[in-house]
Design goal:
By secondary structure, this protein is α+β, with helices and mostly antiparallel strands. Helix content is 55%, strand content 14%.
Length: 589
């Protein structure tokens, strides 16, 4: 293979992984996660009764001890373990984010904890006919060997946390994940808690049964518990498996040391803005260079080439770079990157080069796949929404600072959730005002309708919040909203941790001015006519005015909407009528 070909092969994925290896890791991980999940759910049935656990075990065994289930589980274990060892072998250093280090340590500890359990149940069943029922197993580890019970509880938590970390970093760049993260997090905490409680409840039931004369002996006899000779053979098998795994890890680390020693004979230099240059052995990715030099470098997916947050602009040395892999090219196309933009986690340069980091080091996962133009700045058609609390001075006076902050945070949470559910991006909270952007990734027509849906959802959310804070507020909380659409410059602006996605231009200024005008017209919402036109909304029944905006050449045609519930949005007339009937009264500006 030529040097260029070797470079391309090395560039196949994070730490040298190919797309096939990533798919194999994902598939094997999902099989193992499903196995652990069903195991925990079976444990949770102990909250009902020991018999319920036994019935659940029948379903569990029908899946995982069938020919197909056994094959899938065994293959998943071997593949996942082999890929974990390969990942360790390919690492150039062990500097990594805390979550990645935690996942690695938990993953390495699982075999140490699971071997005894697997040998004592599945292997004992296959070799000696042991019926590892819940009655026999819980009797053993709850009453006879409680130290094994603690070990199993630890194994449960380690395996579950390891799997949840993997699931989180697989799903976090999905656009829907932010909306479902809290329910999923709740389940992630609830499931192991229920499993441990179920196991504990079953243990108490075992203690009650164990007082009956002969029950313990009968239970062990019915389970065909292995005799001393069989147990010795199982322990020997367990030690052999453990020693094999330890040897595999030691060999992997030794081979890794040899590879690194050979790579250090050839070095390249990667230059960053500000004159900082990092010298690393040939084979490092740009992201690994940054981590080695402790340079803040965003990487939402952990360097797996699934997001674009680590991308860099190559300012020098581009002509000598290896071609992007299929995985990298797909991600770069998705964000509309230019030819001089590469993914730092995938790019393994063979010559010196200079790069410029395009993303802030603390970029959140929700912005991992924003289009390239939105990051570096470009003009695009968007809708801008401004909202402001009416009479906030009266609300805040005679209140302690803590109370004011509490009310504002409840207001921000309510309006922010309404904006995000409607497809917008909460741009900033300023004082008691909110600014939101629609259309950063959507078409202008879709963004206009989204902004109107957000306005309605915000008004409803504020009405609900006012009812909840009735004892704290002298009068119901009211807001005024202004929406305008048009061209604006969108991009990440700011410095350091204060960098965020925002927009500037006449469209933003006009939307802010429309929000101010809601005070003059005593209404809930003012929209410009272009918003109504692009959203396909009939506003002929609402008052029309033309206003002038400072620094704007011509007047702006607007529509005054006193009650947002009266605005008929496409596909939402029935919902609006229901909401209006339920509310029974209008929440004015």
């Amino acid at each position: 293979m030529s040097r260029q070909g070797k470079a391309t092969a090395r560039n196949a994925g994070p730490r040298g992984q190919t797309a096939l290896e990533r798919r194999a890791r994902l598939a094997s991980g999902l099989v193992l996660f499903t196995f652990v999940l069903t195991h925990l759910l079976n444990h949770a049935l102990g909250l009902i009764s020991l018999d319920a656990m036994e019935y659940g075990r029948i379903l569990f065994l029908s899946l995982w001890r069938s020919a197909a289930g056994t094959t899938a589980l065994a293959a998943a274990i071997l593949v996942h373990l082999a890929l974990a060892l390969r990942s360790i072998y390919l690492r150039r250093h062990f500097r990594m984010p805390v979550w990645e280090a935690l996942q690695l340590l938990l993953g390495l500890s699982i075999p140490l904890l699971v071997i005894g359990h697997a040998v004592g149940t599945r292997l004992a069943h296959e070799r000696f006919g042991y019926d590892d029922s819940y009655s026999a197993l819980i009797l053993l580890i709850w009453k006879v060997r409680p130290d094994l019970g603690l070990q199993q509880a630890l194994l449960l938590l380690v395996a579950w946390i390891h799997g949840c970390i993997g699931m989180h970093f697989w799903l976090r760049i999905q656009t829907w994940y932010a909306r479902w993260s809290m329910p999923l997090y709740t389940l992630a905490v609830l499931i192991p808690v229920l499993a441990l409680l179920g196991f504990s409840q079953a243990g108490k039931e075992i203690e009650t049964l164990a007082v009956h004369i002969g029950w313990i002996n009968d239970t062990f006899a019915a389970a065909r518990f292995p005799d001393a000779q069989a147990r010795a053979a199982l322990q020997e098998t367990g030690r052999a498996v453990l020693n094999t795994l330890i040897a595999a890890l030691v060999i992997t680390l030794a081979l890794r040391s040899i590879r690194l020693w050979r790579e250090r004979r050839t070095a390249i230099r990667v230059s960053y803005p500000g004159g900082q240059t990092v010298t690393v052995p040939l084979g490092y990715s740009v992201l690994e260079c940054s981590r080695r030099a402790r340079i803040g470098h965003a990487s939402v997916c952990g360097g797996r080439g699934r997001c674009s947050t680590c991308r860099v602009h190559v300012t020098a040395g581009q002509e000598a770079l290896p071609e992007p892999s299929a995985q990298e090219a797909r991600v770069l196309r998705r964000v509309g990157a230019g030819p001089d933009v590469r993914l730092a986690c995938q790019l393994r340069p063979t010559h010196d080069l200079s790069v410029y980091l395009l993303m802030p080091a603390t970029i959140p996962a929700s912005r991992a796949l924003l289009q390239q133009g939105a990051i570096t700045g470009e003009e695009r058609e968007i809708c801008v929404l401004f909202a402001d609390i009416r009479g906030f001075t009266q609300i805040s006076e005679r209140r302690l600072p803590y109370d004011v902050v509490y009310i504002l945070n409840r207001y921000f949470a309510a309006t922010g959730a309404a904006i995000e559910r409607s497809g917008g991006i909460v741009n900033q909270f300023t004082g008691d005002g909110v600014m939101a952007l629609f259309g950063v990734q959507a078409k202008p027509e879709a963004s206009a309708l989204q902004s109107l849906e957000a306005a309605r959802a915000m008004i409803r959310a504020i009405a609900t919040l006012s009812a909840e804070l009735k004892a704290e507020l002298l009068t119901p909380m009211r807001i005024g909203i202004g929406i305008h659409c048009g061209p604006a410059v969108v991009g990440l602006m700011g410095h350091g941790a204060a960098t965020y996605l925002t927009a500037v231009g006449d469209t933003v200024n006009t939307a802010s001015r429309l929000q101010d005008q809601t005070k003059e017209f005593s209404c809930q919402l003012i929209i410009s006519e272009p918003v109504a036109s692009r959203a396909g909304v009939d506003v002929s029944g609402f008052p029309r005015h033309e206003i002038t905006v400072r620094n704007r050449a011509g007047p702006v045609a607007i529509r005054i909407i006193a009650d947002v519930e009266a605005l008929q949005l496409p596909g939402t007339q029935a919902a609006a009528h229901t909401a209006r009937s339920a509310s029974g009264s209008r929440t004015g500006p």
